[in-house]
Amino acid sequence: MTTAKDIMHPGAQWIPRYETLDRAAQLMRDHGVGALPVSDPENGDRMCGIITDRDIVVKCVAAGHDPAKVTCAEICEGTPRWIDAASDIADALREMEGRQIKRLPVVENKRVVGMISEADIARNLSEGQRAEFVQRVYA
Q: The pTM is what?
């Protein structure tokens, strides 16, 4: 059985919910990623959302706001989705396809240990699985 941990990009970088979006953008640049799980230090550092590079551009910059003044908490929306590291990759695919999401944090012992992205899917799945994923996420 291939697990979520087997295909994830390890070592996901967190950002606290009180940090500003310019700091989030800097971390994304420094780590070469397009998304960061957002933690809530007041709640045991549990994940409370996810910030993407697109969120920063569309919800902050394009809306005329200053990314140095807007916090991650202000643009996090909805319930964050994640998958346990020991889960079968088929479960991760179902979650991503069902929610039409392109990045899925991987959690082990209540901590984010990695992220599954489209690139991880492309590298680790068969051509048929990739085609089905693309059809369902982008439909």
A: 0.81
Beta-sheet pairing, 15-16 with 9-10: unpaired
Distance CA 136, CA 139 (A): 5
The Cα 53–Cα 42 span in angstroms is 25
Q: Tell me the C-alpha distance between 105 and 123, whole Å.
A: 17
Is 101:137 a contact under the CB 8 Å cutoff?
Answer: yes
Q: 49-68: per-residue pLDDT in tens?
A: 899 999 999 999 999 999 99
Residue ranges of domains in the chain, CATH in brackets = 4-138 (3.10.580.10)
Measure CA 80 to chain center: 9
Please answer whether residues 124 and 89 qualify as being in contact, where contact means their C-beta atoms are separated by less than 8 angstroms: yes
Report the amino acid identity of residue 28: M
Three-state SS for the chain is CCEHHHHCEECCCCEECCCEHHHHHHHHHHHCCCEEEEEEHHHCCEEEEEEEHHHHHHHHHCCCCCCCCCEHHHHCCCCCCCEECCCEHHHHHHHHHHHCCCEEEEEECCEEEEEEEHHHHHHHCCHHHHHHHHHHHHC
